[in-house]
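Notes to self after the Tuesday call (sharing in case useful).
The group wants a holo model before anyone commits to mutagenesis around the pocket. I volunteered. Ligand is 3,4-dihydroxyphenylalanine. Logging inputs and output together so the record is complete.
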Amino acid sequence: MKEQLKEIQVTFSQRLREVNEMQALENLRVEYLGKTGVLKEILRGMGKLPKEERPVMGAHANEVRDALEEAIESKRQELKDRQLDAKIAKEWIDITLPGKKIQMGHPHPSTLTTRQIIDVFHSMGFVLEDGPEIDTVANNFDALNSPPDHPSRDLSDTFYFDEVNLLRTHTSPVQVRTMMKQKPPIRMISIGRCFRNDALDATHSPMFTQCEGLVVDEGITMGDLKGTLEQFVKLLFGADTKSVFRPHNFPFTEPSAEVDITCFKCKGAGCRFCSGSGAIEILGCGMVHPQVLEYCGIDSERYTGFAFGMGIERVTMLRYEIDDIRYLFENDQRFSRQFRR
Ligand code: DAH
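Result:
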């Protein structure tokens, strides 16, 4: 039996040396030390030994078992260390290598203008309203006192889906929607995309963005309109910017006006930027036509209002001295990078 144990130790050591991974080690452990393992087999044979030899042999067998267990444990530790070393080698990072440059995103110039316009009107107590880009002929034209024979209804200007629906040609239908759902006092702006069947060139785009404004209450006058828009222009373009109200015509306002501001490039002296006039047209406005108020269910005897509309792209082009509207839609990084702050 002693020889048998010796033999077991020798072959075990050989086998152990060949073990390279945890599962093989565990298999070997079970094979030698498990419930039906080699060692247990030997111990079972002890009964056949003479009585006086049994304790000596028993003690020896225990020593062998302890030795095997110890060898397995140290092999396990060795494998673990090896695994860790391999992991470290694989995940090693050279922290001295130069990093990848992260390109930071930034707002589009039209977004910068939009945010600033919203800020200015917020500060004057206006709320932001929203409306759909696909609207009805009724909201886009009828409600706004634009009769069917009005030039802006010309097929070449408007994208129609059918007789009822179109792509809105301006944000003015949002004032209609607001007046229809809300009683005065009303003080709102709305900013969104509009569509017209225009050929794309340096100053026209079939898709553009407008900001619409509307105030309706008792006793609203042209003075309120002027005060509000003069203040707006100063906050957006600088305190020394002057506005001039020039008579104009819109079907939905009476009287109507266009607002010119002093050219901020030449301060009114006349330059290439303002085509020598010293002034730049910036928005359309007027007192809401009584017919529009009535159409929307507002008593035009009791209430009056003013409205205005301006192109976001136009304002953006003026503020950043951009001479072609197409830059604002092309998403050319060489252009938009210039607005990183
Ligand atoms: N809807 C006009 C346009 O598209 C802009 C406009 C002018 C809106 C005067 C208004 C306004 O509300 O009062 O050209």
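Two things stood out.
Residues 2-90 form one domain.
The first helix runs from residue 2 to 18.
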